[in-house]
Write a structure and sequence with these properties.
With 422 residues, the protein is of the alpha/beta class. 39% of the residues lie in helices and 16% in strands. The radius of gyration is 25 Å and the shape is globular. The protein has a 14-stranded mixed sheet with strand order 1-2-3-4-5-6-7-8-9-10-11-12-13-14. Strand 4, helix 7 and strand 5 form a beta-alpha-beta unit. The protein has a domain of 171 residues: Leucine-rich repeat, LRR (right-handed beta-alpha superhelix) (Alpha-Beta Horseshoe), CATH 3.80.10. The protein starts with a helix and ends with a strand.
Amino acid sequence: MSAADSFLQEIIAAPDDDGPRLVYADWLEERGDPRAEFIRVQCEEARLGDSDRREELRRRVRQLLRKHATGWTAELGAKGAEIRGPDYHRGFVESAKMSIRFCLKSGAELMAKTPIRRVTLTSGGKLLPKLAQAQHLLGLQELCFVEHRFPESDAAEFVQSPYLANLQTFELHRSHFDSGHFASALASSSFTKLTALNLGLAQSVDPNWAEPLLNAPWLRTIESLHLGRLNDEMVRRFASSPLLGNLKNWYMTNIGLSLSTETGRTLAASPLTTHLERLSLCFCNMTIEGLRALAAANWSALQTLDITGAKLGPAGIAALVSGNWPALKRLDLCGTEMGSEGLAALLHRPWLKNLELLNLVGNDLTKQDLLTLIASPNWSHRTKICLSANSIDRMEAEEILVKLDPKSSLSAELRRVVRICN
C-alpha cells in the first residue's frame, strides 16, 4: 500500500475526524499539491458559523474547484459522465450521483478512495436485485433513488438487504406501492440506524399503503419522515404513534387530500407538539375548525410551518394564524389563495416579528398589500419576504421602497429582504 493510500484509509476509517485529513494535507503540501490548501480551507469552513471569514473561504473553495475539480474527479477513477455533482466536504467527495450500473461496477473502488457517505442513484432500475447483493453498500450512511419506478417486488427485496444496515437516510421516489408488500418488507428491514425516511412521491391506489410502517421498530430512531399519499386516517394514526418520540421533521405531500377537523384535533393533541421542529402539510387542505385546532395547540418547538399549495383562502389563513406559534422562524404560505384579507389577518399577529422568512409567493397580492405589509408594526425588517408571482410589479415595488426614504438604511434594508421576481 502506498503512503497516499495509507492516509486515505485512515481518513475513511474516521470520517468525522479532521485530524487525519489535516495530516494528509501536510503530506500533500510537502509535494506541492494544491489539494492541501483545499482540504485545509474546507475543514476550516466546516467549523465556522456564518461570518465574513466563512464567505471568504467559500470563494476560495469555488476558485480551487474551477481549476482542479476535473482532475480530482478523474483521480477517483470516474469520468464526469459517470459521477455527476460530486459534493466535496472537508476536502473530499462525500456525496455523488451515479447510475446503479456504475455503483455495481466501481462503487467499491470509489469508496476505497474517498469517504463517501451519500449516493444518489439515477438510472439502471433493472439492476436493483443485483444491487441488493453489493457488500460495499455497508459503507454508506445515505442512499437516495430518483427517476425510478421499480417493480414493487424488486423494491421489497432490496430493502431486505443486510448491506443496508448502516443507512441513516433512505429515499425512494416515484415508485408505486399497491399491494402492501413493499411497506411490509420495509417495516421488517434491518434499518437499525435509520433517522430519515423519504417516500415523498410514492403513489398507491391503496389509501392504507403505509399501515405496516406504523409497527416498524426503526420508527423509534426516526427524526425526519416524508410520506406521500397518506389518507386522513393514516395521518391521525401516525400522529398518535408512541414510536415517534424522536421525530423532528414531518413532511406530508398529499395533493388533493382534505384533512378533517378530527385530524386537526388529533395533530393538536399529539405528543408531536412538544418536539416537532418542522411540519409540512403541502397541498393538504383542511377544514376551518381543523385549522383552528391546529393553531390552538402549544407547538413549543416548531420552527418551520409549510402549507405550500393548500387552498386555504382568507378564512383558512385567519384560522391558521390565530394561534401563538412561539418558536416559529419560517412560514411558507405559497399558493394558499390568501389574498388581501388573509394577509391582513396575518399582519395582526405579534409573533410575525419573530419570523426569519415569510413566503407569500403566488397569492394574488397587490401593490396596496405591499404598502400594508411595510406599514405593519408586527413586521420586522429582519424578516425576509418572498413575493414573486403576485400582482406586484417589480418597478412599482422599488418605487415604494425608495419613496420611504431614498437615503435611509431602512430603504436599503427593505430592498434587501423583500424579494419580488416578477
